[in-house]
Design brief:
It is a single chain. The chain has 8 helices and 9 strands. By secondary structure, it is α+β, with helices and mostly antiparallel strands. It has a single domain, classed as Catalase core domain (Catalase HpII,  Chain A, domain 1, Beta Barrel), CATH 2.40.180.10. α1 packs parallel to α2 and α1 runs parallel beside α8. The radius of gyration is 19 Å and the shape is globular. One of its GO terms (molecular function) is heme binding. It comes from Pseudorhizobium pelagicum.
Length: 365
Amino acid sequence: MRTQLSNTPVRYRPDVETVEPDEPETARKIAETMVSICEKTFADSGHAIRSVHAKSHGLLSARFEVLDGLPPELAQGLFAKPGEYEAVIRLSTTPGDLLHDSVSTPRGMALKVMNVGGPRLPGSFASRSQDFVMVNGKEFNSPSGKAFLKNLKLLAATTDRMEGVKEMVSKAFKTVEGGLEKLGKQSAVLKTMGGNPETHILGDSFFAQLPLRYGEHIAKIAVVPASDNLKALTGTKVDTSEDPDILRHAADEFFKAETAVWDLQAQLCTDLEAMPVEGVEAWDEEKSPFVTVARITAVPQEGWSEELSRQVDDGMHFSPWNGLAAHQPLGAIMRLRQLAYERSAAFRSERNATPVTEPLKCPFG
């Protein structure tokens, strides 16, 4: 059945973006700060990990299906024609150090769709992947590039330090955040600082937060639970007090026997004033709802292992700038992070025994 949109989507034009003159300098400082986080953790462990989203909780092979019967405004780019692709999913939490799961921070989902055709983004890996990078919140936690840099410097200053203090702070912030949510409110800042609810990661919905080009249009992307077994885990509490890797173990236990299905959804920009490309706020879903354009299926499998970590955590790079020109990331925060993604991946590739490459199939070893 075709989805009917009530508002006409905005057509993409290059001038929807406003590039500030000092962006190259800000991008350089962001990249340097990201690499400094990598250097800290590498100095302690002798192993290079990501500057953010360092700890993985699920490393999955999946099938990605573009749905048939999409209306023209949604049948764009990767989604222009129905089809099936192999994909990799990486579930993570945001810090750049490997913390006990009782420090409850926002979760991430990185999705790599393999062997897609079409013109590539400049600087994109030479293979044929399309990456989507998402977290379990609708709004980016920094309103500007300079604010993002300031927050990153704070993160860098506390990386690989004071884990006990982080656990105590997280406990306090979870209490405050829980009270806010009972009142129907949320705080992205509290969640980032350790106040994310202690729930099963497979019940979360994930949002790209920032816009990208959607062929002839502009959109934000989300991945939400579709199968009943995932929906049943939404909001389900997990006890993080004893097991430092409970999120990983919970995901691994699920995939011993269960199949997971997610919907990938697109929210089209229908009003540039109400849905500015350079903004970080969530877009009004009454003006433009999220609409399912693809389905992701992960069958029973090993959900995490040291070998999978070598292949995916060490051997793969996920970046919104690794993809099709039809899905160019948009807005200042997206532009400013491009160099940081490249430098962080290069740091890991140069220092670990497993070079960063692009997979061509699943299983990806």
